[in-house]
Design goal:
five-stranded mixed sheet; 3 domains; 20 strands; Alpha-D-Glucose-1,6-Bisphosphate, Chain A, domain 3; alpha/beta; six-stranded mixed sheet
Length: 484
């Protein structure tokens, strides 16, 4: 590569690309990324001039990065349709609405300032999976570029089309008072207006755009953001609180009493609400999510099937598509609604709308609805350090050990393992519905550990001790980021 190009290969992640701008990648590097992506789109679509939807989030440098990315795409022959300031789901929606060939969204989602990145996809409603990321990395780093003659045009006012699409079929009858928190990120231009449009009484919290993120990062898993939402819900006597991440594809939820509801439980409530109307449906859930999906009576009554699958928005999205599932839920707050409820991709605002439907359907408060679910004792997501080059090997060793323990009917805290799922690391379950998970993190040098028990807090801890013991014996584990 010539001297002036800066492009750190580690920026190519499992299903998107992320760099610290200027430190890991410069504008020449971004141009090359555009050339790589353009070449890949042309190869897959077999078109000389594929149409590519491009948008950007509200960071001080995102427009500059988008300009460089477009330059690269155009040099390969792509016809760019620029929808301007966007949420990731708005760009995904534009591909359907404008019937385009591919998408490229400039965003670092909820990452700290300084970060940038691109979420991209070719097949409608799906973002790059690991294979496509690997291919893109190879084309870009080895400069295997196609030369062509592209062009660009601006699509004005597309925001309005996106907002109206979400509002039109989603009107609610009840007056739901909702705190809408955007952490000064891009969702501030969209979420309050859309939720008002469906009939909510909206209380805005940090919805003005400010790319310095003066309070905290727009991330609904961030405790500071959750505490601010909780406080606003209580002060305003609101029915619900919604928090959106930087590019609007995830939502976090606070109930009327100011308590955070983990996204996997929200997913279960939405599934239960949909089941009677959409009998025989499939729901896809990531392996970090609650075991209550597999034991839920309402889902069973309506002959609905729950399938646990690999964590990661790209994996769940593809599985929803492949299984023709009605919806998919990921513990991190990515929810996917398939036709007739959505287009299969993750849209935090559409997820919030489904929570509003849930409240609209019942004469109960959110705290009462959540209390109807069986209580479970669940650990937070814990990440013990494990080197990138060792983590997958460590996990495959643990998988073998767990399968052996199951086959030999060895008891853990008095129970034998009844089921082992190995689609993503290992998730092992017991007869009482308790389970434990060990997998490799897709974007950090660490493992991921979660345990849950419907029986007791003590049992949850015992399962964690069992996992921790297996991990410590490998000698390859460092400190945990948090521990119970």
């Amino acid at each position: 590569m010539n001297q002036s190009i800066k492009l750190d290969p580690l920026g190519f992640r499992e299903y998107d690309a992320r760099w610290v701008y200027k430190k890991d990648i410069n504008s020449e590097g971004i141009i090359n990324l555009g050339k790589g992506l353009g070449t890949q789109i042309i190869k897959h679509t077999q078109k000389q001039n594929p149409r590519v939807i491009v948008g950007h989030d509200y960071r001080s440098y995102s427009e500059e990065i988008k300009t460089a990315l477009k330059k690269g795409l155009i040099s390969t022959g792509c016809f760019i349709e620029d929808v301007g300031l966007s949420l990731s789901p708005m760009v995904y929606f534009a591909q359907f609405n404008l019937n385009a060939d591919a998408v490229a969204m400039v965003t670092a989602s909820h990452n700290e300032n300084g970060w940038t990145g691109v979420k991209m996809g070719i097949q409608k409603g799906l973002t790059h999976a690991p294979d496509e990321m690997q291919e893109l990395k190879d084309i870009t780093l080895n400069s295997k570029f196609i030369n062509g003659k592209g062009n660009e045009k601006k699509i004005n006012d597309f925001k309005k089309i996106y907002k109206e699409d979400l509002i039109k079929n989603n009107k609610i009858n009840k007056n739901i008072k909702a705190v809408v928190a955007c952490g000064n990120g891009t969702a501030g231009v969209f979420a309050p207006e859309i939720l008002r449009g469906i009939g909510c009484d909206v209380i805005e919290l940090d919805c003005n755009l400010d790319w310095t993120f003066p309070k905290y990062n727009p991330n609904p898993e961030d405790l500071e953001m959750l505490h601010a939402m909780s406080k606003a819900v209580i002060e305003n006597k609101a029915d619900i609180g919604f928090g959106f991440d930087g590019d609007g594809d995830r939502v976090g939820v606070i109930d009327n009493e100011g308590n955070e509801i983990f996204s996997d439980k929200i997913g279960l409530l939405i599934a239960r609400n949909l089941a009677p109307k959409y009998k025989n449906s499939k729901f896809i859930i990531d392996v970090k999510s609650t075991g209550l999906f597999s034991t839920d009576e309402k889902l069973k009554e309506n002959n609905c099937e729950s399938i646990y699958w690999k964590t990661g928005h790209s994996h769940i999205k593809r599985k929803v598509h492949k299984e023709k599932a009605l919806a998919g839920f990921e513990k991190s707050g990515h929810f996917f609604f398939n036709q007739p409820l959505g287009y299969g991709y993750d849209d935090g605002i559409n997820s919030a709308i489904h929570v509003c439907h849930l409240l609209d359907n019942q004469s109960k408060k959110m705290s009462e609805i959540i209390n109807e679910l069986p209580n479970t004792f669940q650990t937070p997501t814990m990440a013990p350090f494990c080197k990138d080059k060792e983590k997958y090997k460590v996990v495959s060793e643990i998988v073998k050990q767990v399968e052996e323990i199951k086959n030999n009917k060895v008891k853990i805290d008095g129970q034998i393992i009844s089921e082992v799922l190995t689609v993503n690391g290992v998730r092992f379950s017991f007869e009482d519905g308790s389970w434990g998970l060990i997998r490799a993190s897709s974007n950090k040098p660490s493992l991921v550990v979660v345990t849950e028990s419907p029986s007791s807090d003590e049992r949850k801890k015992k399962i964690f001790d069992f996992i921790d013991n297996l991990l410590q014996k490998t000698g390859k584990i460092g400190e945990y980021d948090q521990k119970i």
